[in-house]
Amino acid sequence: MAEVVNMIDSEVFLAFSTYATIVILKMMLMSLITAYFRFTRKVKFPSAFANPEDTGLGKSAEEKKKMLRTDADVERARRCHQNDLENVLPFVLIGLLYSLTGPDLHSALLYFRVFVGSRFLHTVAYLAPLPQPSRALSWMVGMGVTFAMAYRVLTTALHL
After folding, report:
1. How far apart, in whole angstroms, are the C-alpha atoms of residue 12 and residue 33?
2. d(Cα 64, Cα 70) in Å, to the nearest integer?
3. Lowest mean pLDDT among 57-66, 73-82, 108-117, 141-150
4. CA-based, 20 to 30 A from 51: which of 58, 108, 123, 160?
């Protein structure tokens, strides 16, 4: 038990906590960016719905069709947020386990910083939008970092 407490007090865990918090806050900010686009593009609930079954308040078929309005900018921000959810959660979980394997501080900082940087670049590439392969490359870099940390966790666990 004392070993776990020492690992949690380590510089690696502190660095992980810092970078995980940054990327989680960035992910949360995507909700506000999506809301901003909804309001500025006048794509608000309950006047606009994403699913046909949500248009029960509409009286005619034409009125229901109008209620299904979408906006390209809103959808782009929403997809960017969805991508964050799909990538940040694995990073946080695997990064926590990685931090507990006792990695070298410099290696850990490199992983954490590269992942966070890749997520910020991914967001800029998604929202700007920048031409491909900028978004795909930034996604692959972040995914590579997560897989590299997972590899370390698994190899450490197998050697116990």
Report:
1. 31
2. 13
3. 57-66
4. 123
Judge contact between 103 and 152, C-beta under 8 A.
yes
Task: Give the pTM.
Answer: 0.83
In whole angstroms, what is the distance from residue 74 CA to residue 36 CA?
9
**Whether pLDDT at 67 is above 70:** no
